[in-house]
Specification:
- This protein has 26 helices and 29 strands.
- By secondary structure, it is α/β, with parallel strands linked by helices.
- The protein folds into 4 domains: 228 residues, Rossmann fold, CATH 3.40.50.2000; 208 residues, Rossmann fold; 171 residues, 3-Layer(aba) Sandwich (Rossmann fold); 72 residues, Alpha-Beta Plaits.
- Strands 5-4-1-6-7-8-11-10-9 form a 9-stranded mixed beta sheet, sandwiched between helices.
- A hairpin with a 4-residue loop joins strand 20 and strand 21.
- Helix 5 packs across helix 6, helix 8 packs across helix 9 and helix 12 runs parallel beside helix 13.
- The protein is elongated.
- The relative contact order is 0.07.
- Bound molecules: adenosine-5'-diphosphate-glucose.
- The site of adenosine-5'-diphosphate-glucose (ADQ) has 23 residues, from helix 1, strand 12, strand 13 and helix 15.
Length: 726
């Protein structure tokens, strides 16, 4: 049976110590609340920290037994590690940085080492429990190294990762000293999920710019596999909140609150205590609202519900003091005998009390400075059964992308919050109902179960895609067959591309010159007169001559403009012109001026604009612009513009590697043909090969080649096997 292993920092149950005894209680927080219902409905195991030290759990055998009976497997962490990993790296480094508070982020080697240690401890526990068919779903910023650590232990595992907080833009993420390790850690997963499309985009951008992997259409082509990244906005348990009127406890609580509140209209504010939630700014805006609107005095109450959180981190301690002060100040300034404008509750409330507050609140004031999603906004909306109530929501909460019918504000703009409060308290009922009904429809459809199902579907689809790619992979067995066919053949033709196929790309073309080992290997292949080796390249003929002129090989330069038979001289197969270069060169020059890091390569019959060293986003944008511009310029010239691997090339039409290769293919009755290539220019060669030929593309992606190998080093090791080496 396929099981689901959910892995998160905290188990959905927490062990609390009270008066020397240990008690088990449900954990609070967005993730635990959201996933609990989903996890109970399928065969799942939850792996996480139980919130208490290693020694204590061991001592209390029945606590351990109860956790296991609830399918919860605790990861034991030492107190020191919890301090440096959880209170340190997670809450003092990643949390502030990812929420755009870089000045709060502490960069400590000690924290980082604890983070690595704890992620390794998680990997050991998960690897000990996982069976081959299981699906592993890892959650959140506490465990960003875990996907890679698991991939090393369980190479075939199905691993998904979901980040519940924002993924910041590259400019912010790059500040992290361990940024590459974090990205590599995440890429151990098959699917990386985010709340919004923007976060997924930021992640892809950072992967591209920091690790250099190709990304496109939510797909990353890493060294030996593809990884998907996509947006899955987390939903809530909609039924639970929308059925609040059938919950007698919630109804009784509502009545009790209403009695205390009298006729006052209620503005509700609910958050964990966190500087990202913008609570002081919200209070100041409320105070300004009262200044501006004396008519609302004694008529409204702001219920400020704050859940204690991270009480040992300095910024949180300061924030608590600031809030206490502000509440006192505002109540002192505006309050009267019998009316306190702010009701301040600093505690966690049970579901029925929270639901009662949601249901009686006229306005929910949800104004985080940054929030990955924000479930409070969704819970409030779901509770509005009669459709009455207004949600004010900050644009920097992920939820704003789904809840467009709310009053959307900029949390730093006090004026906007004041106006939003005025608008909310005066909004006609019909408008409130219309706005809420639209949002409710969406929230009901895309609830937490749907969210998890969509993530799972995409994860399994990604796995299938990887398997299809693997089927094209040239296995070790097939490499042995290929090598033995080659050794038995009487007439063998080897058509080999050079850059990206026999050697990896280098920042500058001149840096990719062949080393002594490669030259020796090519020389060995040519030693037997039954073999014909042809290097088919886009390079200019002088470079090929200087690198390979001494070998007994055929050479094709500039994709087929120039051909040199082994032992012969260079000849050109067409009567080609190069006058057009005078017209095209200045255009490319202006692109070099506007794209730092790019340069022009001039070949006899073609011009190439290279942008491998440019900023990737800018390079791609300029490449597209250049292609557009050139297609107009060359309309009447016998030229073609082609986009290659970080290059745009202009050359004469009808020149391609396939045409050049056909000269050799048609010449003899070959009983073995091998073609190796890596990019679109090699596709022309693959296409004209007989079906019996071995055609192999380096890397993934659509190709006419029959097989894939992951990298140039795999290509050279195949050639080595063919000549009988290891
Ligand atoms: P949080 O930062 O914890 O979650 P949020 O999404 O608002 O923020 O979730 C808070 C949860 O706690 C809600 O389900 C709410 O009902 C509950 N809650 C709040 N106050 C409470 C109180 N006083 N008593 C009891 N329960 C209370 C992180 C990210 C978010 C992301 C979630 C889920 O920071 O951006 O939405 O994970 O991915």
């Amino acid at each position: 049976m396929q099981r689901l292993l959910i892995v998160s920092n905290r188990l959905p149950l927490t062990i609390q110590e009270r008066k020397g005894d240990l008690h088990i209680e449900p954990s609070v927080g967005g993730l635990a609340t959201g996933l609990r219902s989903w996890y109970k409905s399928s065969p799942s195991i939850w792996i996480g920290w139980a919130g208490i030290g290693r020694k204590k759990i061991k001592k209390e055998k029945d606590i351990m037994a109860r956790l296991l009976s609830e399918n919860c497997h605790p990861v034991a962490l030492s107190e020191h590690d919890v301090e440096a990993y959880y209170h340190g790296f997670c809450n003092r480094t990643i949390w502030p940085l990812f929420h755009y508070f870089p000045l709060y982020a502490e960069y400590s080697e000690d924290f980082w080492q604890a983070y690595e240690r704890v992620n390794t401890a998680f990997a050991n526990v998960v690897a000990g429990i996982a069976r081959p068919n299981d699906i592993i779903w890892i959650h959140d910023y506490h465990l960003m190294l875990l996907p890679k650590l698991l991939r090393e232990r369980l190479p075939k595992a199905t691993v998904g990762f979901f980040l519940h907080i924002p993924f910041p833009s590259f400019e912010t993420f790059r500040l992290l000293p361990w940024r590459k390790q974090i990205l590599e850690g995440l890429l151990g997963a098959d699917l990386v999920g985010f709340h919004t499309y923007d976060y997924a985009g930021h992640f892809l951008d950072s992967v591209h710019r920091l690790l250099g992997y190709e990304v496109g259409m939510g797909q990353i082509t890493a060294t030996d596999r593809v990884v998907k990244a996509d947006a899955f906005p987390m939903g809530i348990n909609y039924e639970q909140y929308s059925n609040v009127d059938q919950d007698p406890k919630a109804q009784a609580e509502r009545k009790r609150f209403r009695k205390k509140l009298g006729d006052c209209r209620v503005i509700l504010s609910v958050d964990r205590l966190d500087y990202t939630k913008g609570i002081p700014q919200r209070l100041e805006a409320f105070s300004l609202f009262l200044d501006r609107n004396p008519k609302f005095k004694r008529k409204v109450i702001l219920v400020l519900l704050v859940v204690p959180s991270r009480t040992r981190v300095e910024h949180y301690i300061q924030l608590k003091k600031q809030l206490d002060g502000l509440v006192g100040e505002i109540n002192g300034k505006h309050g009267t005998i019998g009316w306190m404008p702010i009701w301040y509750l600093y505690r966690s409330l049970p579901f029925h009390s929270l639901a009662a507050l949601y249901s009686l609140a006229d306005v929910a004031l949800v104004t985080p400075l940054r929030d990955g999603m924000n479930l409070v906004a969704k819970e409030y909306t779901a509770t509005k059964i009669d459709g009455k109530g207004v949600l004010i929501l900050s644009e920097t909460a992920g939820a704003a992308q789904e809840l467009g019918e709310a009053i959307i504000i900029n949390a730093n703009n006090q004026e906007e919050i004041v106006q939003a409060l005025e608008k909310a308290l005066e909004m006609p009922e019909q408008e409130q109902i219309e706005r809420n009904r639209t949002m409710q429809k969406r929230l009901r459809r895309y609830d937490v179960v749907q969210w998890a199902n969509e993530f799972m579907d995409k994860l399994l689809y990604t796995k299938k895609l990887q398997q299809e790619m693997e089927e094209k992979a040239l296995t070790y067995e097939m490499q042995r067959t290929l090598a033995s066919n080659f050794q038995k053949s009487n007439k063998a033709l080897l058509l080999l591309d050079y850059d990206g196929t026999l050697v990896p790309f280098a920042p500058r073309p001149v840096d990719a010159m062949p080393g002594a080992n490669l030259l020796r290997l090519l020389e060995k292949l040519t030693r037997n007169p039954r073999n014909e080796v042809v290097l088919i390249s886009g390079r200019d003929k002088d470079t090929l001559e200087s690198w390979f002129g001494g070998l007994n090989v055929g050479l094709v330069a500039e994709h087929g403009v120039w051909i040199k038979e082994k032992g012969g001289g260079w000849e050109t197969i067409e009567t080609l012109t190069s006058e057009w270069k005078e017209e095209v060169h200045p255009i490319l020059e202006s692109w070099v001026d506007r794209t730092p890091g790019s340069f022009i390569e001039e070949k006899e019959y073609s011009l190439v604009w290279h942008y491998r060293k440019a900023n990737p986003g800018l390079g791609e944008l300029r490449a597209r612009e250049l292609m557009n511009n050139l297609s107009n310029t060359i309309a009447n010239l016998n030229l073609q513009v082609l986009e290659g691997s970080k290059v745009v090339e202009v050359k004469n039409t009808d020149i391609n590697k396939g045409r050049a290769a056909s000269r050799w293919i048609s010449r003899e009755k070959w009983d073995f043909i091998l073609a190796l290539g890596d990019d679109w220019t090699d596709e022309d060669t693959f296409k004209i090969l007989p079906s019996t030929a071995w055609s192999i593309k380096m890397g993934f992606g659509a190709s006419a080649a029959r097989f894939n190998l992951s990298s140039p080093s795999k290509a050279t090791s195949l050639l080595r096997k063919m000549v009988g080496g290891r």
